[in-house]
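Quick check before the chapter quiz. The format below is the same one you will see on the exam, so make sure you can read both the input and the output lines.
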Amino acid sequence: MASRELLDKLNEAIAREMQVSIQYMWQHVMAKGMDSDSVKALLRRIAIAEMMHAELIAERLDYLGEKPTTKPAEIVLGESLKEMIEIDKKAEEEAIEMYRDIIELAEKERDYTTRKLFEQILAEEEQHHGDFSSLLE
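Here is the expected output.
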């Protein structure tokens, strides 16, 4: 059975995925400026991917006997397109760190399914981070 620590971390991950899903979708709507069309499409695509992550983690948490949270972490939108992307890049960095910790804990607890799930999600988060980093270059 999963430890309380792992269950809590999975719920934190869901809250974070819901947060960025809403954050990126609202930024998609609000983005303005010369480069906004391509950035808007990217934000929308990543927002949908993040919601899918929330769903996958919630399904895992439900399987482990825990109720998934319905409350997102704090949503931060930003004012300018550049500020939005800087905020989003930082959010991805935080997710990468969190997911590495979850992978390590799941491995320690011999929960290989959770480990594999988060390895897959981590790879996508690293891609999102790369996308946001490229936009800022």
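If your answer matched, good. Residues 4-136 form a domain with the Ferritin fold (CATH 1.20.1260.10).
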